[in-house]
Amino acid sequence: RHNPTLIWICIFVACLPAVAAAQWTLQQIPSDVARLLSVDFVDSLHGVCCGFSAGVHGRAIYTTDGGSHWQAATVPDSSRSLVTLQMINADTGYIAGTYKMSPGSDYRGFFLRTLDGGKSWKTWGTLPDSIGSLPGASFADARTGYATGQGLHTQTNPSILKTSDGGEHWSRMIIPDSIVLLGDIRTRGISETFAVGYEHRNNVNQGVILRTTDGGNSWTRAVVPQANNFTDIFFSDASTG
Predict the structure, then answer these.
(1) Which residues lie below 8 Å from residue 94, measured CB to CB, with a gap of 6+?
(2) Which of 18, 84, 189, 208 has its CA 20 to 30 A from that of 231?
(3) Distance CA 234, CA 186 (A)
(4) Closest by alpha carbon to 131, among 146, 150, 153, 157?
(5) What is the mean pLDDT of residues 155-175?
(6) Chain centroid to CA 17
(7) Of 135, 122, 24, whose CA–CA distance to 73 is shortest?
(8) Rounded Cα–Cα distance for residues 27 and 50 (Å)
């Protein structure tokens, strides 16, 4: 007869090498990158990250060997913080963030596009003048995408912007006036999109989730009073998020 205790010990010992192998390793990146805010891979080898330098200038880096080596990408000198990125395919990708034309000027929303797999980025499209930053952006395909926008001043209500031509032109969606701040936004197909942030009602901040199922024409809101803010949203499948 088998000893049940011995069998369990053998199973546990056999699993140890697999557990030990599941580790994180530090990647070497260009020395002038102070913080990375977003990352996306189109396959197991090709990936892009974005963020900013210690002097608060936008920075983007890319890898072609699965992260073993990262190289600096070319971005406009006026960029200040590159907040979120998405690669649509091996060549085309988008970055949203902020820029300044001069040290004394206001921050403005910034949108970039790459056509060479993230090696170089150029400004692209026209945003409303009142947009001071783009905290989030998400594309359903190469043409249809959404972005969350903050105003030039803190008292300005946030916005959800939509493009139907790959970021060349943006239109503002109608959302509830109670929204104070929006962070991440995620598309799930052409028609369905979620945005998260917080709203202020009755002298209380509460986390809010906005959802559209008709391509941005109308938005419903779900409030979570136990959380005073949401910054990110992710779905693992059609039902679970």
Answers:
(1) 85, 86, 88, 111, 112, 113, 114, 124, 137, 139, 145, 167
(2) 189
(3) 7
(4) 150
(5) 92
(6) 35
(7) 122
(8) 14
Amino acid residing at 82? L
Average pLDDT across the chain, whole number = 89
pLDDT digits (tens, 9 = 90+) for 84-119: 999 999 999 999 999 987 778 888 999 999 999 999
Query: Tokens 């059609």 map to which residue?
Result: 238
CA 66 vs. chain centroid, Å, equals: 20
Per-residue pLDDT tens for 34-74? 999 999 999 999 999 999 999 889 999 999 999 999 999 99
Q: What is the pTM of this model?
A: 0.86
Edge-to-edge strand ranges of the sheet holding 93-99: 79-87, 93-99, 108-114, 122-123
For the record, the structure tokens of 130 come out as 């009142």
Is the confidence at residue 22, as pLDDT, over 80?
Answer: no
Least confident window among 12-16, 97-101, 172-176: 12-16
- What is the residue whose two structure tokens read 């007869």? 1
